[in-house]
Amino acid sequence: FTLNYRSGTKPKNDRVVVKIRFIEADAPIAHLVIEAHIRPDLNISPPELSLGTITSGKPGTFDFIAENYSSAEWNSISVGEVEGLSCEITPVAVIRGSTVKGNSECRQAWKVAARFTPQEEQGTADGLFSIPIHGGDSAVTPLIVTYRLERPLISIPPRCTISATTRGETEKRITIVAATAELAATAFEITASPTNLISARIIERRGKFADLIITVVGDETMDKEVSGSVELRDPGSPKTLLTIPIECRFMDTQTATPK
Fold this sequence. Notes:
By secondary structure, the chain is mostly beta strands. The chain has strands at 12-20, 30-38, 42-45, 48-55, 60-68, 77-79, 85-92, 99-100, 103-104, 108-116, 125-135, 139-150, 153-156, 160-165, 168-178, 189-193, 198-206, 209-218, 225-233, 240-251. It is elongated and about 105 Å long.
């Protein structure tokens, strides 16, 4: 008889058992076992990775194995460019008949130690990126990496809208929350813009929370709407920990309507 087996294209270790019954009544039942290690020319193990929750500006690290299952020897592999990603590639010894990360009979293997430093907007977000891995003349296999981004600081609310008067000062209090460290002993360099309009200062710290007072100074020459921002930085460092967009809507103090 003829038995056709199709492996499919997804990398896996396949095992199929086929029962064969003969016509004769007393004939035994035969079991035909088909085992297959299905791999592309360039196999990545694992094919997907999750970095979990990482803080913006701080690297998340991960390792993966790249394996050559083609019919030719390769000098090495290469990793495509991804913003914020750096990699170190090291050959791994392969002994015939053994396994590398659960895969058997690969021709060559490399360990890739990677660091990914995300730079995203304020707040948390689910992130995903694909790393193209190249091997030989034409083999390309992507590695999918997912993560959840957490900023070192967030503000509540994330954006600040202030209804200010055209004469005198208007203040608004917002809350700053740290993802990890206590804020009680943390120093910040606070920059507000435009400087002739907006200023900010921290007035109270409670564990991971702090109150930030934003002050807007108006005059009769102001446009009815002005945009600005407040930034918190590490002292002596160009790194911005938090940016708070500010929208100022000026009201005439005599008419109490938008200017």
